[in-house]
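Re: the request from the purification team.
They wanted to know what the chain is likely to look like in 3D before they choose a buffer screen. I agreed to run a prediction and write the result into the notebook, where they can find it.
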Amino acid sequence: MKFVKSLISHAIEGTITFLAVIFAMGSFYWFENTWMKIVGCIGALIAGYVISYGAAKIRQT
């Protein structure tokens, strides 16, 4: 059961990271202003890191 819990939590973290990278790369196409492109990319990567970090903390408990 511990293996399944670990596998699911890693899959969730991988999905979060994947979606953050997709949004970060997509921000270069969705936004027209250069500053919005840069801020959207950096913001998506930071948000993905923070959410993945939170998921890892939940997994440890």
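For the purification team: Residues 2-30 form the longest helix (29 residues).
Please add any questions underneath this entry.
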